[in-house]
Every structure is written in C-alpha cells, then in structure tokens.
Structure prediction request, 141 residues.
Amino acid sequence: MAMRVKDVMTKNPVTVRGSDTVASVAKKMAEHDIGDVLVCDDKDCLVGIVTDRDIVVRTISQGKDPATTCVSDIATRDVEALKPDAEVSEAIDAMRDKAIRRIPVVENGQKPVGIVSLGDVAQARDAESCLGQISAAPPNN
Prediction:
C-alpha cells in the first residue's frame, strides 16, 4: 500500500496573513522553531508561503525594513499544494520537478491542514539515510 502525504506531513502548520509584517513573521518562526509559514487570505485559504530564506533574500538583502514590509510583498505565490490523500511519491516528484523543499497540504478549498518537507519524506522513505538522520535530529538552537 502506498504511503500517503497525511502519514508523513507536519499537521497544523503555522499560518499568517499577507498584511502581517515580516518582523512579526520572523518572530513567529523563532517562537515555533520553524523555517516557513503559510500565507492565508481572510477565508483561511492558502495564497502563499514564506521561508526564512525569503526573509533574508527578499527583505534584508534588499534593504527593506522588516518592521514595515508586509509578508504579501515577499511571499511566494502560485504555491504547489497537495491533498492529504496524495501519495508520497507525488510529493517527491513535485519537489524534484519544481526544485522545492516544502509543499503545503490543503483540503476543502485550499485550507491548509499540513506541510510536507523534504526531511519528512526522507525520514519516511529511508530513516537511515543521511538526510533521514539529519531530519530526525533535534535542532541546534
């Protein structure tokens, strides 16, 4: 039986609004010890994703003020998303084809219910691989 995305995803992803400031999102990432947040509209539907790298590359390196820059100004739009019942192989194919490391998991009209990362897939497929072991290790704060 094929492994499903819902079996390996991180549930209850952290979400923000496009009007939130980059500084507030960075603080939220630090509080939750995560490197990404999903951007939702006022109906709680997925409209984008922001990673810690986006904050550095699209805000800090460009001289923008994180305290006044809105998340909507730096978010990646047209986000690849999967349904919870999608096969893990679909996530792997999408990550490979789009050169991405994280895919939001949505249901009921684009409402986020999880996020699946390259590390999640590595742990599920081959926990003894180098990437599987690194992904399973506790973060070094």
